Amino acid sequence: MGQKIRVEVNGTSHDHEVEPRQLLVHYLRETLGLTGTNIGCETSLCGACTVLVDGRAVRSCTQLAVQADGSSITTIEGLGQNGRLHPLQEAFHEEHGLQCGFCTPGMIMASAGFLDDQPNPTEPEIREALKGNICRCTGYHNIVKAVRRAAEQMGGES
Amino acid sequence: MYPAEFDYVRVETLDQAVSLLAQHGGDAKLLAGGHSLIPMLKLRLAMAETVIDIGRLAELRGIESAGGTIRIGSLTTHHEVATSDAIRDHAPLLAQAASKIADPAVRNKGTVGGNLAHADPASDLPAVFLALDATIQLRGPDGSRDVAARDFFTGLLETAKSDDELLVGVTVPGLGSADGSSYQKVEHPASGYAICGAAAVIRGRQVSLAYNGIADHAFVARTTSEALSTSDLSDDAISSALDGLTVDDPMQDIQASGEYRLHLAKVHGKRAVRAARDARTS
C-alpha cells in the first residue's frame, strides 16, 4: 500500500507514492536519482548518508521516506548555487579533505548542519561534530582543516 | 537494507494512537524518531505488522519547567534536551548525558520517549532518569498512569510499559544549587553506546548512583548509594563505598567481560560521585 508524500528536495517540490518501508536514502537515490548521498554501513554508524532535513543533519538510512513527508531536504547536489561550489565543497577541495571521496557528501552535509548552529567553531568542536562520520582513508586532519576554512570563508561572506 | 513490509499509519491525535495500539497490541510498533525501531526492523530483530507514526503529535514534544519540576514530552529529541536552558539549569546531568549520546545526527532525530521505551541496556538516559528519581507517564486504553523510573526498567529491552501503552513523557524533580550531579561514561568507540555509564546525583545528603551498560538493564546501586548517603563524601569514603560495589549478573559480550565491567563501574562510579560532590555550590 503506497503512501503519498510531498517533499521539497534541493528547492524542487516532488510528489510520489512510496512504499512505507522505503528508506529516505533509497527514495533520494532511486526515485529521485540523487546518487550523491552514499549508503555506507546502513546501521547509523558511518554518516555517509547524512542529509539535511528541515535544516538539521540526519541519517537518511535511518529514516523512512514517509517520515519526511512535508519536509524540506538538502542533499550534496543542492549545496552549490548557480554553478558555484558551496564554501564547504570549495574548502574540501582546497585542503584536500578527501581521498576516495565516499564519505565526503556525508562529511559536508554534517558540517553544513553544524556550521549553521556554530558558525565559528574550534577544532575540538569540529571533531565532536563529525564524530558520527567515518573516513577510512585516514583523512580527518584535512577534513577538520577544510571545515575550519569554510567557517572562515562563510563568516567572511555574510 | 529494507525493513520487512508493514502497514503504516500516521496518527493525528494521541487518542487515535492509543486506540490503534489497543486494536493491534503487540503486532504494532510505535515510530517516533525511528532511531531504535528502524535499525531493529532492518536487522529483523523486531517485526511489525503495523507501524504507528506518532512523530507529528505536537502535544508530546517539548520541555516545561515549573516549580522546580521539569517535564519532558516523549517526542523531545536528544539535541533539544542537551541544549535546553531549563534542563541545563535544573537537571544539568540530563543535558550532560544527552550531549554524549551517539553523534549529532542521531541526537537530531532520536527521542527521549523512544530511548526509554526501547530500554537498551547500553543507552545513556535510563540511569540518568533513575538517579534523578524521575517519573514516567504512560497512556493506555484505561487512561494514564505514572511509573517511577525505579520500577520501569525490568530487563533486557523490557519495561513496565505494556504493549497497549504509549510513553507520553517524563517528569524530573529538578536539582537545587546546593545539589550536585555528574555522568561519567566509557563509550564504545564506533557506536558511542555506553560500555559503562555512571550517573550520580547528590540531593542534600542523599546520594543516588545508577548505571547503564553494566547489567541487562539500567539499575540503581542501592547498597552503595546508601553507604554514600551516610558518609562524609570524602575521597576515601567514596573509594571505600565503591570498592564494595557488587553486581549480581554483569553483562558480558565481545566488548567487555563481566569482570571488566564491574571494574569500570567502580572506577567511573567514584569519578561520578566525586564530580557530583564538587559540582555543589554551597
Architecture overview:
- The complex is a heterodimer of chains A (158) and B (282).
- Chain A is an alpha+beta fold and 158 residues long.
- Chain A has two domains: 3-78, Ubiquitin-like (UB roll); 87-153, [2Fe-2S]-binding domain (DNA polymerase, domain 1, Orthogonal Bundle), CATH 1.10.150.120.
- Chain A has helices spanning 24-31, 87-94, 104-117, 123-129, 140-157; strands at 3-9, 12-18, 50-53, 56-59, 72-74.
- Chain A has a five-stranded mixed sheet with strand order 2-1-5-3-4, with helices on one face.
- In chain A, a hairpin with a 2-residue loop joins strand 3 and strand 4.
- Chain A is globular, with a radius of gyration of 15 Å.
- Chain A starts with a strand and ends with a helix.
- By secondary structure, chain B is α+β, with helices and mostly antiparallel strands.
- Chain B is 34% helix and 26% strand.
- Chain B has twelve helices and 14 strands.
- Chain B has a five-stranded antiparallel sheet.
- Chain B is globular.
- The interface between A and B is medium-sized, with 33 and 31 residues.
Topology (elements, then pairings):
The complex is a heterodimer of chains A (158) and B (282).
Chain A: E1 3-9, E2 12-18, H1 24-31, E3 50-53, E4 56-59, E5 72-74, H2 87-94, H3 104-117, H4 123-129, H5 140-157
Parallel strand pairs in A: 1-5
Antiparallel strand pairs in A: 1-2, 3-4, 3-5
Chain B: E1 7-10, H1 14-24, E2 28-31, H2 37-42, E3 50-53, E4 63-66, E5 69-73, H3 78-83, H4 85-90, H5 92-98, H6 104-107, H7 112-118, H8 125-131, E6 135-140, E7 143-148, H9 149-152, E8 153-155, E9 158-159, E10 166-173, E11 180-187, E12 194-203, E13 206-212, E14 219-220, H10 222-229, H11 235-243, H12 258-279
Parallel strand pairs in B: 1-3, 2-3
Antiparallel strand pairs in B: 4-5, 5-10, 6-7, 6-10, 8-9, 11-12, 12-13, 13-14
Helix pairs in contact in B: 10-11, 11-12
